Amino acid sequence: MVSGLVAGVQDAPIPTITVDEVQKRILELCMEGPREVSEIARLLGRRKEDLMRSIEELRILGLITVERRQVEKLELTEEGASYLSSMLPEEKVSAVLEKSECVRLDELPLRAASLGLELREEEARLGIMHLARTGAVVVKDGVAAASCKDALKRALNEAKALRESLASIARGEGGSPELLETLKRRKLVITRKVAEILVSLTEEGRRALAEGRVSSAKLVTTLTPQMILSGEWKRATFKEYDLTVPPPRVYPGRKHPYLEFLDAVRELLVSMGFEEMRGPHVELELWNFDALFQAQDHPAREIHDTFFLKNPTAGRAPEELLKKVGAVHESGGDTGSRGWGYRWDPSRA
Fold this sequence. Notes:
By secondary structure, the chain is an alpha+beta fold. The chain contains 14 helices and eleven strands. The strands form four sheets. A three-stranded mixed sheet has the order 1-2-9. It has a three-stranded antiparallel sheet with strand order 3-8-4, with helices on both faces. Helix 5 crosses helix 7 and helix 8 packs across helix 9. It starts with a strand and ends in an 18-residue tail after the last helix.
């Protein structure tokens, strides 16, 4: 908000701008250059979401510009993150081979455990594969052996560089294109598109800060009865409201159209003399179909339109009722109808 005057050239009045303390810190951080909102939130010890209103108000005042953009960021996969605190598979396998001239493949996890290393069978397979690719290991008849010490050393140096690159990515830094390509191929790193919000000072904002025309205060947005009774309102700095800004549009909740349709049908049927009855969420076919005189071979009773339970598969119903329903389906019973004319199956109901 704009308030007060300071002395300018030839004592010309220059308006000062009063913002809250957080907004002043945002402006000061942006004096060094454009800042991403996540970085600002980290430096201020606040959540990103809590700063968005303050940033929008500074933009309206013309002190900052806000740029939204899509960027690609590198992230460690679960497997890649697990190697940060331990070793890559090829490093573990190399540690075993350094102690033994040759090792059976199925004994690698056990040999690694004797060295205090946890090496799963899948990791052992990966380690052998990467070492064989560099020519550091040869495998014959299920036995792995180091080809030569120099090749094994080169493989270890490559693994160390990969692990350092993983640590660099975890810190939000990059790495060499060759190493990144290897990490992506091994599915230790993925590229994810994220939305960034970049905040920059405008020329007016930079000039106002440099000239000391931006002051901070604890702005009060709500006048409470306690403030009036205590007289605190006399010393408070109130935040100005722009009545020309349209309020956010409110979309009130409403009943789902299908529920409205059900209410209309219910009202119509009740007015015709029917009585509404409520049952459990899971009901017998007897009540859903048979008691409504729907034939047992009706298409609506197929599995594509009805959900059935695997357990339990059957329920109970009064024997006398089953006889009456069966009679109506088969011959009409005492209703005067001819029924469906088929053999009704009580176990289906």
